[in-house]
Design goal:
Elements: H1 6-17, H2 26-40, E1 47-53, E2 58-60, E3 65-73, E4 79-80, E5 82-83, H3 86-92, E6 104-108, E7 111-115, E8 123-130, H4 141-145, H5 147-161, H6 165-191
Helix pairs in contact: 1-5, 2-5, 5-6
Length: 200
């Protein structure tokens, strides 16, 4: 059986649990698995480019932002921004007034902040990890590339709720392995074709 849609995932979960009394809970278990997956995975299927303009010292977070992969100030030359915490930015650059071209970036609420405080409305480009939305609404790329992650994650959430110790031992192990495999595959793809470098 293929697992390429939300309903096919639900059927696959039900077939493995073999319990007719759990049908009304399957959507909840998928939601719990999705939440955990978005907290843990950072793969190329979640990557989305963004462009923002700094205004009043900040740039708005892009839509459905989870995490930042990289960002740069689009000037000549390009300046790649180092990721820091908001507290670090405020401690190192306490004067929040026009100070220079940014070299550091941090998230604060729904905005990115910068250090030094930008002295112009620079354009910031980059790539971020995006929440692709609930699987119940769309069969997105993350699910299509990793149906095992969603299946085993949902089954783990199910047996944990059902207090099935044997099931927990089985499905948690498969879930953890599928998460690790998905992350490893994404990282290998990113570095494939690169030249091996030797460092003294």
């Amino acid at each position: 059986m293929s697992i390429t849609t939300y309903n096919e995932l639900k059927t696959a979960i039900a077939n493995r649990l073999r319990r007719a009394d759990t049908a009304s809970y399957v959507d909840d278990w998928i939601t719990l698995a999705e939440t955990d997956i978005y907290r843990r995975l950072r793969t190329e299927d979640m990557e989305t480019s963004f462009t923002g303009t700094i205004s009043s010292g900040v740039a708005a977070l892009p839509s459905s932002y989870i995490d930042l992969k990289f960002a740069y100030v689009n000037t000549t030359p390009v300046v790649f921004l180092q990721r820091k915490t908001a507290r670090w930015i405020y401690e190192k650059y306490p004067t929040r007034a026009a100070d220079g071209k940014p070299a550091f970036i941090a998230r604060e609420g729904t905005n990115f902040i910068f250090g030094p405080y930008p002295d112009s409305g620079y354009t910031v480009n980059g790539v971020y990890y995006k929440n692709l939305g609930a699987l119940s609404s769309t069969a997105h790329a993350l699910f299509l590339a990793n149906p095992d992650v969603y299946l085993y994650g949902s089954l783990y959430m199910a047996v944990r709720d059902l207090k099935d110790n044997n099931g927990i031992a089985r499905w948690q192990g498969l879930y953890e392995q599928s998460i690790a495999n998905a992350q490893r595959s994404s990282e290998q793809e990113e570095h494939s074709g690169s030249t091996l470098e030797m460092h003294a």
